[in-house]
Amino acid sequence: MARPQDDAPPSGKGGLAALFAAWFLLFGLIGAGFAWVFYLHPDARSSPQVERTGDTPQKRPQAADGDRASATAETAAPVAAPRPEPGPSPKELAERLRRQGATPPPPTWRRFAAAFDRKDPRPRIAIVITGLGLDGEATRRTVQSLPAAVTLSFTPYANDLNRWITVARVDGHEVMLDLPMEPLDFPRSDPGPLALMTGADDRENLEKLNDILGRGSSYIGVAAALGSRFATSEPDMRILLRALKTKGLIYLDNASSRDSIAAELAASLGTAWVVNDRSLDDNQASDAVIQARLAEVESLALARGQAVAIARPYPQAVAQLARWAQGLSARGFALAPVSALVPQPDPA
Description:
This protein is α/β, with parallel strands linked by helices. It has helices at 12-40, 42-46, 65-76, 90-99, 108-111, 136-145, 161-170, 202-213, 234-247, 262-269, 287-304, 315-326; strands at residues 50-53, 56-59, 124-132, 151-154, 175-181, 221-226, 250-253, 273-275, 278-279, 306-311, 334-335. It has a domain at 124-341: Glycoside hydrolase/deacetylase (TIM Barrel), CATH 3.20.20.370. The strands form two sheets. Strands 3, 4, 5, 6, 7, 8, 9, 10 and 11 form a nine-stranded parallel β-sheet that branches. Strands 1-2 form a two-stranded antiparallel sheet. Strand 3, helix 6 (136-145) and strand 4 (151-154) form a beta-alpha-beta unit. The longest helix has 29 residues, at 12-40.
């Protein structure tokens, strides 16, 4: 039998196996090459990241160290907004408006004054009732009995002060606040803990004034209560009248002292002011005394064109005033709120 030859070709099955093994080795080498290029090569690891914008790859911008530090500082400590500058004072605002040809806003007393025809040529008489608010019945009787042109002044010691002010204003009255001040016979006559005193420093008196004014609203000014000593002290009155001018309020001097400097000083400072001519019912005067004083008020109004009288809310005084006011117009007089008697030109 003949022996098989050594160089005979392999069978078909064995050749295919060898071919697959060669292809497998080739693909393995190619995969290893890609892995080495993209994951192991140092240049690939350190290459910058890119972003795509549309179809063109762009490098991500990298901030410098100084820029990063600056941005961090700005984020951590934002710059505080500058403080707003204070606005102009009322005096500065009025001056600016004057220069610009504009009309400054009216003072407080004009905004809350009762209506009155200032073209009325008749002599004017103003009646001011002070000390209201402590006695509820007397206050109610006064508000309801007297004409709306009568000015009503409430004590800062009153309970429900703003309620009483509202009642009076709804009835048509203009309103003031009593301003207690030191009398010559203190402490026999005691104006109370809110009184302005000559022995107090300016700051204390201004604090008391602000306390009094803060207790009410919609008033035209203050009516002096007692005050025969305080009204003669030039330094103290100057501080008071300057403060009232700044606030746009009227000062009604009760003429408790012949030496009062209120009118002259107020005129020099430009503060709105009025001075009382007669007190109608000191010590609860009789009907005859009240009637005689009202006749004096009419005589003063005829001679000077206007007059002011002050009364307390005593039953006799209120009843006499109600009867007197009924025939006043027929006698040729105009009953006016006290704001209509502020001297002209307007000092405010």
